[in-house]
Amino acid sequence: MAWTGEREIKNQLQKMWDKGAILAAIVSRESLFPLRIALKSPSSSELSTAFAAVQDWIAHWHAVRKIRVEMRDVQHRVIGSNQVPVAVWIDSQADALALIGKAPDAGRFQSILAITPLTLRPWLHKRPLKALALVADWPQLLSIVAWLDLHPRPQIYLRQMDLPGVHSKLIEAHRAVLAELFDLQLSPAVIDDSAHGVAGFCQRYGFLDKPLRVRYRVPSGTLFEQDVMLTAAAFAALELDVDYVFITENEINFLAFPALARSAVILGAGYGFEMLADARWLQQKALYYWGDIDSHGFAILDQLRLRFPSVRSLLMNEPTLFRYQALWGHEPVPVRHDLPRLDAAETKVFNLLRDETLGANVRLEQEKIAYADLLAALAELGDGFTLKEET
Description:
Order of helices and strands: HHEHHEEHHHHHHHHEEHEHEEHEHEHEH
Number of strands: 11
Number of helices: 18
Radius of gyration: 32 Å
Structural class: alpha/beta
Strand content: 15-25%
Shape: elongated
């Protein structure tokens, strides 16, 4: 029979829990109960054809604890008048929690709420289940928020924050949560709103962060012997005396990149390019980017052009893609949005990948391209490059 059973009622209450509605109501003091839930009851014909089953169903509802049954008088021409359940009532939050076994969790959430300042309670209302998952660390997280409120923009490393039970790994693990709490608690005047996300955490709230670094190589003699790593600030002030700069994502490609006259090669770091942002002298160089032929490779190129509009791609073209068809791999989570800063040829290849014209999530990683093809591509650039001969 398709009549509503106890499990369906519990499932509805569980959905309310899973959405965070019951815990959010504790924060806002909103009244969700008494809650009426309509039942799918036996039809008039079923009252006579399945009378015994109907009686068992009615008896079951009267036996269920924590639920109040709403009855309705149903007239039947054969069996006369009968009282049939049409709805159930959950009279209180406590009854709902008992039915789905969440009373202990709600108790833990109440303990979180009790120690949380009013300024931070909107976060509990918005993310109650997340807060419940953090119950063991919640007192320490609150102490971090309170400390920073008293010491705005402290200009220390996270490791130097000296609070009971607080260590840098705890802060690192919960940066996203702390950022939302800081934004609620701190004065806007002490928040650097130009920095966002986990990567911008330290800058946004005035902590010291490990400096961004740039790793690059320049020719010495006949090989790229000078492998140097500098802070981003030092690299920005360097202004290398070169004409050509190549950026490649793969470390082996970086190490094996051929020595070219008056050139440098930089090891990329995927998205962002914050480490190159202040190196304005790169705008005056012939800049090339060599990434994977996949949607993220083109998305990184598109993002790089936001900072360096004149950058050109290297070996990220249709002939290279098809030459290595036997070595195509699978890109786990492709980019699907438009990339407006690609040129026409790059856009064509990106669309072939994004639209899955060549198959699902096709990619060609740059390290699968033969070294001889790299040398040939450099020779074809026509910018006066001179490949130095190794001795």
